[in-house]
Amino acid sequence: MASLGLRFFGIAALLGGLYVPVCHAVTTVTVSATASHTIPTTLYGQMFEDINHSGDGGLYAELLQNRAFQQVTPGDSSSLDPWVAVNGAELEVIADTDPVSSALPNSLQVTIPSDATGSVGFSNPGYWGIKVDPSWTYNASLYYRFPSESPYSGTLTVGLESDTGEVFASNSTTIDGSQTSWANVFLTLTPSSSASNTNNSFFVTINGSEAAGEIVNFAMFSLFPPTYKDRPNGMRIDIAETLAAMKPTFFRFPGGNNIEGQSFDTRWQWNATVGSLLDRPGRMGDWGYANTDGLGLLEYLTFFEDVGMEPIMAVWAGYSLNGESEPEDALAPFIQQAIDQIEFVVGDPSTSDAAALRASLGHPEPFYLNNVEIGNEDFFASDSYVYRWPDFYGNLSAAFPDLTFIATTYPFDPVIYPTPPHYDVHVYQTPDWFIENAFYYDSFERNGTTYFEGEYASISTNASNLYGTPEEGRFLYPTMQSSTAEAAFMTGLERNSDIVFAASYAPLLQLANDSQWTPNLVNYDAGTVYPSTSYYVQQLFAVNLGDEYIPSTLPTEDGTLFWTISRNSTSGDTFIKIVNPVTDEQDLLFDLAFTTVASSGTLQLFHGTQNDSNTPTTPDLITPQTSTITTGQAFNYTAPGYSVSVITVNAS
Ligand code: LXE
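Above: inputs. Below: predicted complex with LXE.
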């Protein structure tokens, strides 16, 4: 326990002409010179699934929404969303008699009215906007065919325009009525000026008077800006860079609820997400919108290599969100599908078809993979996890003895066999809960079992209605109160990193215009990324981390001041993280047992008031500020209210 000494604070208050010393309780933290354990290399990472348009419309850089009419019902008015007609064209999503591919059965059938004049066609406003950047080259692509042969030949134009009709970029080609089979049109767009906002759209037009009465079918559109590390079919640069700047060590994917499916048929299936985009049918995701699966297994894995993080990959485990579990005697094909998914990632192309497929797609070398998670939140179907866990774990660990498998129930309920080596623990709670549970793992038995805090977030101030509305206390965006409370909890994760091997805030990403869940770590719209206060907490914890944990005086278990210390055993850089999740400032005295401690260090201070929040209307309200600080074997520090401080000092 921390010793609370009383110290006369340096500055005295002037009162009635007399100097009256102001008393502050000072918490003395004695810091050992010897590490107690090695910090796992996977401690701080990210949990991702397509929720809040975090994949399509988010990390995945494709700009066109509903680009291939996947998982829509032709004839439904919503099947066209968000495409709209330009200048009187008649648009209809049809089940094509001769579709562009068997995976993409629907086409956009465009009829040019017989009295058409001017440019006639259709446009797409993207995912609530399209960013027009004159320094970018956009790759536009579409497929077309004439359902009936026609003598028509004319110009097709694609471009980017504002909602007031200002054209920023356009490019053209000739299309031909003799083209009754599918032809691909690929055109680049280089805007000549920037747009003042993101209320822009992508348009496709033809000359109305020349084409009057013609009918043309279109399919599989795409519009890509430059991508992170220049990957074809890759990631949106600003979002990817924001994620990479957190220095995540792992990326949990592809769910979360979104691996589960609302039913067995709509579960995430790796094999439907690889190969040509024409061969990906997409699926109805678990968060109310179709997933294109353009962000497929290979795109994920490539992204992990580009960022330098490892996967924590989930396999579907026989349970879907509607509450149904596969009976035990029906599991075999799903276990095989999970084996194939893992083979695709790490298998040998000479012995596995899935690995050979990976090699044929340009990556003959296996990807790095250590951790595989079996299912998601299977405590919701714990009755069936009693057989699903041993069946999946038994078969998968026999096929891949070098891999590590993670169970998704709680250690105590139900008791499952064989005893899982690792558990994925989730918690969405109030700020107070996170502060009160900074010692959550301290009492856990050290029996070889280790833990992945796979989802956590402080989501509401209302303990009795955590998932209620913002009016009922739910956070729309993280605040300094919610974020510093998470930081208090994280000091406990770091202290217990002998048994906590990984931890990730959830959810990771949110398109601010349309989301299903709040709060989220990183928010964005079509043009801008808005890192939240919790993002900066995650970043401070992840970037400033040594390879060894340095024990120190324990914080008071029911207190309001927390710290954790780690050290880089090569450089001697020692990272002292101090969290004050309440209003009043608090004083500390650090007393380091190291022989040599630098006389100055670096302070990264992140602090604000309780409700301060980085939002699209107040971006960057609170960011960490760096300064130099006087250190030494003993030094004082005052932690402001609602703050996370990281003091980096060299010690040996
Ligand atoms: C639990 C699940 O795994 C996630 O998909 C949800 C959002 O983070 C959460 N309820």
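The domain at 3-34+549-650 is CATH 2.60.40.1180 (Immunoglobulin-like).
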